[in-house]
Amino acid sequence: MAIWDPFLSKCADIASDLVLSHLGYVFHCSINIQKLKNEKENLENERTRINIMVESEKRNAKIILPDVENWQTSVEKMKEEIDEFLRDEQRKNMRCFKYRCPNIRWRYRLGKKSKSMTESVTSLKDEGTRLMGLPVAHSPPPPEIHSAHEHWNSRDHIFKGIMEALKDPHFKLIGVHGADGKNGCKVVVTSRRQDVFRKIRQNSVNQVDPRVVKEFRIDILTEEEARTVFMKTAEISDNSEMFPEADVLCRECRGLPVAILAVAGALRGKERYSWKDAVERLKNSKLDGIVDIDQTRFSDLTLFSTLRLSYDYLNREDTQLGKEAQSCFLLCSLFPEDAEISIDDLVRYSFGMRLLDGNFNTLEKVRNRVLTLVKRLQEDYLLLDGGDENVVSMHDVIRDVAILIAKKERGYLVEHNLEKWPETINNESYLAISLRSQNFHGLPNELEGKQFHTIVLKCNQSRHTTIPNNFFKGIENSLEVLDLSEMSMFSPPQSIAMLDKLRMLSLNGLTRDIALLGRLESLEILSLHGITELAPEISHLTRLRLLDLSNCHYLRVIPPNVISELQNMEELYISDKFEQWDVEATNQERRNAKVDELNSLTHLTALQVYIPETSLTLLNDSWSSKLKRFRIWIGTNWKTRAYVKYSSRRILGLSNIITLEAKFKVLINKAEDLYLNKLEDLRNVCHDRDGKVFPELKYLRIENCNFVEHTFGTPKMFQPTPRQGSFGNLSSLSVDDCKGKYMFPLSVARCLVKLQKLSITDCAEIEEIVINEGQEDDGALNFPKLEYMELFKLPNLRSFRSSMRETSIKNADNSNLAQPLFSETVEFPSLRTLRLRELKDLREVCHDRDGMVFLELNDLTIWECNNVEHIFGRPKMFQPTPQQQGSFGKLSSLHVWECNKVKYMFPLSVARCIVKLQELSITDCAEIEEIVINEGQEDDGALIFPKLEEMTLSNLPNLGSFRSSMRETSIKNADNSNPAQPLFSEMVEFPSLRELELRELKDLREVCHDRDGMVFPELKDLTIRECNNVEHIFGKPKMFQSTPRQQGSFGKLSSLRVENCKVKYLFPLSVARCLVKLQGLSITDCVEIEEIVINEGQEGDGALIFPELEEMRLSKLPNLRSFYSSVKETPIKDADNSNSAQPLFSEIVKFPSLTKLYLYKLEDLREVCRDRDGMVFPELKDLSIQECNNVEHIFGRPIMFEPTPRQGSFGKLSSLRVQDCKVKYLFPLSVARCLVKLQELSITDCAEIEEIVINEGQEDDEALIFPELEEMELSKLPNLKSFYSSVKETLIKDVDNSNSAQPLFSETVVFPSLSELQLDEIPNIKAVWNINTPPTNSFNNLTSLEVVLCDGLSYVAPSEVLENLSKLQSLKVYGCHSIEEEVFRSRRSNNEEGIVPTNVVLPHLSSVTLINLLRLKSFCYGIKLPSSVIWTIKNCSSFLRTEVRATTDS
Fold it and tell me: What CA–CA distance (Å, rounded) separates 385 from 184?
């Protein structure tokens, strides 16, 4: 045994640790859950910060990086999981049914799961922290702008209406339809056709409430607007000799912009005879047999003829170029509506379909010709620009014209959104088809007798499609182009090998039989998507000019010698995820190709490939010499590839390369996009004395590199006036995590005349962006095109550029004098967006005396610059009247976050210039005292922010006032006091402000002091949170006139949220009467509030009405007693010095539109509503009252209502939840009879309630009916005896002076629609239904019944009830310890024999759950249940298992 002791001891230790760790889940359950809540809050804070960054980038049309979007999605999913978990958390306090002990199993599960979730949350939070230090988005490459947008007066009211609807929180769906075509949270739907918008509303899963819908119709242009656009596009004037013809043609365009642009563009620059000819053509035009015109798209057939004219004029001179332009136009009709049409696709189709002259015999020649044709079509407004220079699009109306012409003249059939193979193919002689379907049904076995030269089939489903093996039989000698790129299949049909004339082929998802393609000897263009292994037989395709494997992201095998055999290859695209190039292996051992096979491709003009550093020596100089377009990644550890926007023609990436051979510098000189990563010494790549490196470079990204300054040369290396060679075309520069003390020498910086974006992040050593080279300054440095700049995590950065004079002064006194980041020495006349973050050595942002630094700045964000003291300059630095349109004059968005040394934001002189500011957010600035600081001059009237629409002031503990006037400041200084000032007063006005959020302003006492009602005339959304010293929000009582101006401050307020403030009231009465637009009101955690509306002493002018209020939440207001007390009620209360219970709501305040009311933890509340005339809540649908544990009356007191009250208040109530209240009853009978719309009723934790409905003494006229009630929960009601007792039942009970058991439900109350009933912990009920009088027409629709811990029950119901419960599907009975014999008690005969079973009862019953019923013996003697019932029986020791068989019909 001694031998085993160490082993056993070790096992015991392991077991002990294991047991203790698992017990920890139980004992530390609450701690683990609290940690989870804390980490959830931290994660939400991180999410808020990132969301602010993301939304700001989106507003600037930036593209959010995928890892950021993925993180946001993960956080949202995690939040939902945590919320669901925390909702179930209360179950950890459940007690075992029998012994009332803590539920150990649930505590174990909760403790374990909460710990696991906490770890996941922490991981997500840490990832968010990492992302906060990186850019979250990148700019799209600047497209060529080809626009014909005009300002049309007829659209002004529509545009304004749409903008109003977008800003109005009331509207959820906005529809725009009409003649202009598509111009395209809230959902904004745009379409030419109004019926599309209406169908969306009708087919919505949740029917859209018409009250939250706004619809706009865009009509055709007015006659004057149409003529103006036509003349401008055609470049003629009213005095032109062509005016008569222009006038005729313009009228024929019917005011449709797309037609006007197309016709006018076609005739621009033409002689008058061409104009006259156009008019004649239009007059004599016929539809030439085109009879199947879509009347919904061409209601006016003249419009079709007009657009046809533009097509005809492409070849007005009958030239080869004109014919090819028409062919290119019709080719675009094969693509889907609204598609972005790739130039690459147009090139490949044009080559494969032989659309161009035979002299265009290389892909490069075809590409140049296609670009020429596309440019021509764009100039004639027949094609539109796409998202970048590599794609175009076609207006859907123009496309419809193209489809009709192509069908008539070229035999093209274009049918999309098909459900099956079109039968028309069998009846017509088509030459080209483009068909798209969700799932092709009925594909023919063969295409015998057809003459197709082009087939394009697209299938929208992701599943694989099977094409019949003989499908291509019959078109072997005609088919030249086959595109199945969006139709996934395991293998191609066998007949594909017979397509002898096939020139272009595109397939998707092949996993076998790829070798068949080796027989297609005429093939010149091959595109394969989603394959993992290329077949060796592809080497037989010796005529192949283009091989595209770029979408084969899981490609693992390219057999040896396949590439090298394709000697005619002009374009080769291999997925940059393919990394399996062989290096040293011999031919016998090789499975994959070697990189040196590229050396054989002497005709190569386009290449996409990833080349490992180990293979670089295998390449010679020849392979890259003819490259016109490339996307080449060289080296290792590439992460940037996933985030690159591939719009450029020439992309080169270098990573982890020690030495770059000269043969690759040819690529560097050709590159438009260059990515440099982990290069130890940039001098090996970028050394340039003569300005010849990077002549074509547009986009440059540098990551994790040393000597970054050598990218652009060292000071004095360049001549004072260098040639504009290197970097002269650079438009975007991004530098991340690099070493170096500066970025540009001054001479280089002066060459960056095309730079549009500059991003420098995480460069710890950098001190200046531009370094002076010793020569005299030659005026300000100007970046004329720079639009976007971000400087992140540069802890030593002090200045963008220091002038010679500043540098000399600094050196002379050997001081570290704080310099501004920007000053007059550098100008950014086009900069629109500036982001500064974590610049720890920065003291001042901008020192701009003449207002020329930021003329166009639109968006400014400053984060975590903790030593910044001045942002917009120092007080008195500006002249009293600075230039209105100087720096910051166009600023529209300002975000400042965690700048803890800033004491003010704007000097007054600057604030007066910011006339375009629309959004202001200042957060976590610990020392800020004022937003606008006075500079000593006399105040010149109120300060106005005319365009400001959104403002957030958050966590500013020392903020006292937005702006103090000179007079207020003098008074404050004179008496050396710190009197409470309002945050806003008449000294500052916000005529356009719509959203205002104030949060954690700890020094704030009063929000707004506005005598004349001009501060917030447009305010719609006001949120005030955790301003826990605020005493007055809307002014002090009697401050307002008795009849204030209706449309002053707050007159348009629609949403108000107040949380954790010190207020004793919310509104003075005079203000409350102005809130005619208020729709949402939420007041939370205001512990001192006693009334919502306070009387100001004047006599009331009738009831106070909130006409549009729809939702109200009052939560955690322990001292709230009344919403509003009238003057009459207040003196009575004061006279008798009593604190008599007042109702929260009474007839003196009315809410005619309120649909949702939530009351939570109103501890001083005694009565909810006293409504004699039934007019307080006529529209209320959802009422929730929770933990108002002193409430005694909710719907009024008995006998207070008339016997037949008007169906006013509560008549539309559909959902009612009452939890933890002191009520002894819920409804007086007269109220209950009004609840004809009630669908959901939940009453829980009301310890004193005895009846749900109380009789008021009048004679019962008929049974009480709840006609629409579907769900009922009665839980933890220890004193509940009956749902409702009629007068007769009460009298009978009183006469015999007995306490005989009443059923919970009797025939006096009827529930014809009830489907779910849950009874939980109601110990006083003896029976659910009366054994003598089973319910009639009640409970007939019950599908689910759950009875839990009702210890007074001896049975659930008499067996007679079962006939009424014919729709019951689920029955659960838990822990009802008094149930003895049966769940449903059967009636026995006199001789005690059981009833003989007859028909099966409860035919829809699917599950029965019986738990902790120790005395139960049978379900119900003498009945049969369906055999399909699933039984769950636990801890029912007396229950006979044979009973299960006996009570089923099996």
Answer: 15
Q: Rounded to whole angstroms, how far apart are CA atoms 1386 and 1409?
A: 20
Distance CA 886, CA 882 (A): 8
Q: How far, in whole angstroms, is CA 701 from its chain's centroid?
A: 29
Structure tokens at 1118: 């322990």
Q: Tokens in use for 1090?
A: 């006693």
Task: Give the burial class of 1350: count Cβ atoms within 10 A of its Cβ; 0-12 exposed, 13-18 middle, 19 or more buried.
Answer: buried
Residues 6+ positions from 1299 with CB-CB distance below 8 Å:
none
**How far apart are the C-alpha atoms of 1180 and 651, rounded to whole Å?**
63
* Structural element, H or E, at residue 1294: helix 1287-1295
Q: What is the C-alpha to C-alpha distance for residues 864 and 837, in angstroms, rounded to an integer? A: 6
Radius of gyration of the chain (CA): 40
1423 in helix, strand or coil? coil
How many Å apart are CA 1136 and CA 1138, to the nearest integer?
5
> CA-CA-CA-CA torsion for 584, 585, 590, 591, nearest 10 degrees?
-50
Q: Dig out the tokens for 203 from the structure.
A: 């087919």
Structure tokens at 421: 């193979």
Residues 1104 and 226: their CA atoms lie apart, in Å, by 53
Which long-range contacts (C-beta less than 8 Å, at least 24 apart) are formed by 801-805?
801/746, 801/749, 801/768, 801/769, 801/770, 801/771, 801/772, 801/825, 801/826, 802/768, 802/772, 803/772, 803/777, 804/772, 804/774, 804/776, 804/777, 805/777
* Beta-carbon contacts of residue 1068 (< 8 Å; ≥ 6 apart): 1034, 1035, 1036, 1037, 1038, 1039, 1040, 1093, 1094, 1096
The residue behind tokens 């559909």 is 1214
* Tokens at 483, concatenated: 């595109």
Nearest partner of 727 among 738, 706, 711, judged by Cα: 711
Yes or no: say if 1144 and 1112 are a contact pair by the CB < 8 Å rule: no
**C-beta separation of 297 from 259 below 8 A:** no
Model confidence pLDDT, tens digit, residues 677-733? 888 777 656 655 555 667 888 999 999 887 776 677 666 544 444 445 578 889 999
Cβ-contact 791, 735 below 8 angstroms: no
For 895-946, how does the pLDDT look when each residue is reduced to its tens digit (9 = 90+)? 999 999 999 999 998 999 899 999 999 999 999 999 999 877 666 678 999 9
Report d(CA 141, CA 549) in Å as an integer.
25
The C-alpha atoms of residue 1249 and residue 1224 are separated, in whole angstroms, by: 4
Distance (Å, whole) CA 736 – CA 1367: 67
Query: What's the pLDDT at 1140?
Result: 56
Alpha-carbon span 325 to 370, nearest angstrom: 9
As a whole number of angstroms, the longest Cα–Cα distance in the chain is 123
Listing DSSP states for 591-629 in one string gives SS-BGGGGGG-TT--EEEEEE-GGGGGG--SSTTTT-SE
Please state, in angstroms and rounded to a whole number, the distance separating the CA atoms of residues 352 and 363: 10
Query: Helix (H, G, I), strand (E, B), or coil: what is residue 1088?
Result: coil
Q: Which is it for strands 781-782 and 757-761: parallel, antiparallel or unpaired?
A: unpaired
For 14-169, strand residue ranges (E) read: 63-64, 137-138
Residue 1273 CA: distances (Å) to CA of 317, 594, 1245, 1346:
83, 73, 11, 9
- Tally Cβ neighbours within 10 Å of residue 1145: 22
Distance of alpha carbon 1047 from alpha carbon 469, whole angstroms: 76
* In the predicted structure, residue 23 carries a pLDDT above the cut 70: no
How far apart CA 907 and CA 943 sit, in angstroms, is 12
Q: Give, for 11, the enclosing helix (H) or strand (E).
A: helix 5-27
| E strand segments, 738-869 | 742-745, 757-761, 768-771, 781-782, 788-792, 799-801, 820-823, 826-827, 833-837, 844-847, 859-863
Q: How far apart are CA 1240 and CA 817, in angstroms?
A: 71
d(CA 132, CA 136): 8
* Site of tokens 């501890």: 1163
Phi-psi label, residue 951: left if phi above 0, alpha if psi -120 to 50, beta otherwise: beta
Six-digit token pair at 778? 């030659």
Asked if 982 and 1015 touch (Cβ cutoff 8 Å), the reply is no
